[in-house]
């Protein structure tokens, strides 16, 4: 592990503040370009069962992707105590199927069917930042850190290009991702 000028907590605070400064129109444009890049990616095109997230705190907005491909099986997580529980969400009825969760994040209703986690093709993972080694800086709650080691499917961090860093501090429990998607490129 390298010595970093900032701890994870300090870096997270700095980057979240930087992300909040992105004007809404620019955020929408960057999100759309990122969705276009993902939709052109052969791995995405072939994926049938996809786990994803609803945008929170100006994370990239992937909703254009769901709307273009409503026939894929989309799974969204719900925080239950310290775990992520994944439900299949029918995009055609998205607004009725989602609720604001414990952290203010849009989550699926608890009575929706669970996703079959043994047959996941692709996992689109939110992050504050990702680095060139595939590590992600999350929000500090550890939900993905606990869930990722036993997950199946190609793990893709989703960030805007300016949050794709050379290196971020890591801990022994951090799991490297297999790809990082930004509006500029998909890094594998």
UniProtKB/TrEMBL annotation:
The keyword Nucleotide-binding applies. InterPro entries: FTHF_cligase (IPR002698), FTHF_cligase-like_sf (IPR024185), NagB/RpiA_transferase-like (IPR037171). GO terms for molecular function: 5-formyltetrahydrofolate cyclo-ligase activity. It catalyses: (6S)-5-formyl-5,6,7,8-tetrahydrofolate + ATP = (6R)-5,10-methenyltetrahydrofolate + ADP + phosphate. It comes from the Bacteria. Its EC number is 6.3.3.2. Gene3D superfamilies: NagB/RpiA/CoA transferase-like (3.40.50.10420). Its cofactor is Mg(2+). The keyword Metal-binding applies. Keywords: ATP-binding, Ligase, Magnesium, Metal-binding, Nucleotide-binding. Belongs to the 5-formyltetrahydrofolate cyclo-ligase family. This is 5-formyltetrahydrofolate cyclo-ligase. The lineage of its organism: Bacteria, Bacillati, Cyanobacteriota, Cyanophyceae, Pseudanabaenales.
